[in-house]
Amino acid sequence: MEDKIKQIKEEFKEKIKNKSLKELKELETYFLGRKGKVSVLFQLFKTVPKERRKHFGAKINELKNFIEKNISAEIKRVESIEASRKLEDEKIDVTLPGIKLHTGGLHILSQTISHAEDIFLSMGFDVMVGPEIEEDYYNFEALNIPEFHPARAMQDTFYLSKKILLRTQTSPIQVRIMEKYKPPIRIIAMGRCYRKDAPDSSHFPVFHQIEGLVIDKKVTFANLKGTLSLFAKRMFGEAVKVRFTPSYFPFVEPGAETSISCVICGGKGCSVCKNTGWLEMGGSGMVHPNVLKNVGIDPEIYQGFAFGWGIERIAMVKHKIPDIRMFYQNDLRFLKQFRG
Amino acid sequence: MLTSIKMLKNIIQFDYTPEELGDKLSMMGLEVEGITRVRHRFNGIITGKVEAIHHIANTNLNKAIINMGNENVQIITAASNLKIGDVIPVALPHSKVASGADIVKKDFKGIMSSGMLCSCSELGLDPEILSSEEKEGILIFPADTPIGEKVEDILPIDDDYLELSLLPDRADAFYLRGVARWIEIVKAKEEDRRADFSQLEEAISFKIEGVTDIPIIIEDKELCSFYSGRFIKDVTVTTSSLSLRQKLFMLRMRPVNNIVDVTNFVLGFYGQPLHVFDADIIKEKIYIRPSKKGEKIQTLDEIERNLSNANLIIADESGPIAVAGVIGGFKTAVTSKTKNVLLESAYFSPRCVARSARSLGIVTDASTIFERGADPLFPSKASIIAANLISKEAYGIPAKDNAVSYITPKNPVNLRIARVEKILGEKVERKNLRKYFSFEGFDFVEKKEHFIVTAPSFRADIKEEIDLIEEIVRMKGYNEFGEALIVGELKDAKRTEYENFIWDLKERLVKLGLDEIQTVSLLGESSFDLVGYTDKKKVIKLLNPLSTDMAFMRPLLLPTMLSVLERNKKSENVNVSIFEVGKVFCKEKLFKETDELGILLSGARTSKNYLGVHFPYSLLYLKGLFEELFLYYDVPVTFEAEKFSFMHPYQSAGIYHKGEKIGYLGTISTTVLNKLGLTDEVFYGTINIEKLVKYYGVEINFKPFSLYPSVKRDIAIIVDEDTIEKDVRNAILSAVPRELQKITLFDIYKGSPLPKEKKNLAYSLEFSSVNKTLKGEEINKFIEILEKTLRKKVKGKLRKE
Prior knowledge:
Chain A is α+β, with helices and mostly antiparallel strands.
């Protein structure tokens, strides 16, 4: 009996070495299960003489405890090893590229319009719209461009009928607003315009304009300059300067072409600004008294300024876009560049 | 418009570089867009005179003997336009033509040729400014051209030109003296003195003989306030002298004959359009009158034109002989046979000429100047200048003119001093106002509170007070005025509600993963063919389209959106999910513009990736996008199966809002895709967004949600295969109470063990109540009712587990 106990202990010590979790569980049954080696000892126990029973009982219990303790310790140890091995197996190469999510975006023209609107809203301008199909009266006549005026030839117009056309500028909105509201008026208006220009890198028969109109008792040429200067700084950066050169638009006088200092060369002269240091942005000026008279506003009491800049032009200058046609081609490789 | 700096320097002295001059004029309002430099590129080409021409037998060649001044040379030429006595450009051996080629002696089958006779291309001349004779064959110089001279000294080729833009208020940019006057203003300002334009005038005295006795009748003095006719007899019509040819060359005008060249010179140099008639063809009297309906005229370009009362005409007893201020008539034109001429110099009203030119659809140099405003006081002087030149060039003898004048002196303009500050926001000193007006050569009378200003007669742009204020800004300098921000009441600035809606809509679509595009709102016939669009009566056609592919206003967004797809597929952008919010147009009683949204999908939501996760777009994905949108604005809509010419007949639906159709969606038909060469499926949907706007901005009120656990129950319903899902869903909704919080279709099954022509729809129903935990029996009761309803409404059977 003594030998048997010793023998089991030795066998256990030998078998527990380098076992997997599953083998350990089997080993546990092999030794401690109902028909296990230790249980069998308890059965043999009956054959032992009474006086020796106490001694052997203690011995067998000792063996059982020894096996129990060692096997559970080993299970714990192997379990933790296997857990960490499993984690290792689940290793992900974190340098793999993430899965690309498709997100939507606004067209760069919308982004530019939204930006411009926000700047003018902060200056207290209302944002207005008007129709793209316009009457000759609003697009020309009310703007001091009567029939046969040479200025009509400057803007090659698409006609739908004798008196109905596609607006060539957002300025007709000025007239509509002045007919509807009394001064003080401080608005901008955005929208699509149409001109019979053959497409090239800087012309397209469809384009967008931003129109501004301010009418009040004391709105001056200095205010026009101040307003456009501030807008240009907000849109293109603090360093940008605005320059006014004489020009002619029948609905404003004094009329000016407005340019900003070249954002590419900073005004030193480069190919984009044709070495002038300036980039033309659009027309502006003091609202002509005839325009005010046409809408029933007394030019002796009220006066104001107006301007019209091209949205595509603003976006092209701001983002260094080389060709106006790209806006309407909508190649995703173009659109997606502008966080669109 | 190109203006010769060489010619400007002939009449006014200045030391500015062309760029400096351009900048200075631009800041005065004469817009200079750039400088064109022209330099001769040939070398050693000399004038010579043809002494003899011998044909070389059995060839198309001639042997010409050319007198070079100090020697005669023999040159073989194929030219056929040579005459004995012609002065021509000769490239002798060792010279170089404009193309850079060197000229050498050549042997033509034993006959030596010592050089080459030159045409305009060997000289590198712009054919635009040459006569038709000069363009073809050897260039022939005016008969009085000296021989043995360098060609670059004969023709003023080497020159710099100002590129002037022709603003509608500036007639003066169009003629040389007009530009010279602005240079005088620039100088006057720099030298702080009054402008003096008298140096630009020249005194002329010449011999006249007799009077012009043809009667002149002006019918409407508003349209024509001055008309002068002058007989010039015994003219010899030929080519102009070298001196006049040189002037026309610098004015970039094409020579015609000595008479027409004189009138063109006076126009290009002095800004006065003139006309010359063959006096022997004119019948009795000259009338200046509006044309009558039915009258016709063959104009100088030999085109017969119908006239109307929009045209002011010059007529004789036989009918129209010229369109006033626009173009002359062919019948009375000066030809080589003309002996006596009548020279016209007149002032026609700008509006009258503009209307007339527009109605005929022609623009001429004369109409361009008249419609911008010529100098009403100059015609009389111009007639003298022209008569003098014609007498020199064509040896004619001018008579005293017969002039009818209704010219009234130009009205002075009042400038209120206070008004200047009010408009400009800055006080301009009286002494400065005096200076500014002097710089421009204006006359003025100074009063206590205002100036009375009279501008020279050629300043058609000075009509009212605001014009003078603009002159003040020009003279002081646009950039010499300060900047100031607007002062006014603080007000609530906003976008219109509609614009807010548009932005909100676009943002929502972007959140749904779509890219915004903007396409051209014009399209062509082929777009209609592509999508089988037939409702053409409603389509708006442009009266004057730029091209056939942009001749109509788009009645739907699809065609231009498809071209965007096509372009992107070509550039390997395979996954396209785009939307456009834009106007579509139609013609009902009036022209109508409507805002629409179009969504177009093709490819998949995710690009190919190493996980194998792929999410292809489908019709139901597109429908899901629209449903999301309608849910967002809380708009009730239904989708009804419907067919469209460009959609798959069984994969398309109309979208209805309260019984009204507001849009549609579907799978684009393969017929359309084949035409575009597209292979992937394409899904398109569109709605009229104006129907949505009233749902925008509705305040959202909190709705209580259940704090009790919800109960889920999955049900399976067997229905006929062609039963539409909407009916099944509606049946479920009608049967179960508001405790049904959510209904999700999670499986559709056809096939064994189901009988043929049956399908199984599996739904997950989620019930909850805001005030209690629902018990199993209550749910069972719902299901019992549901079972009956399904049987009754869709012949459906609930499948028991």
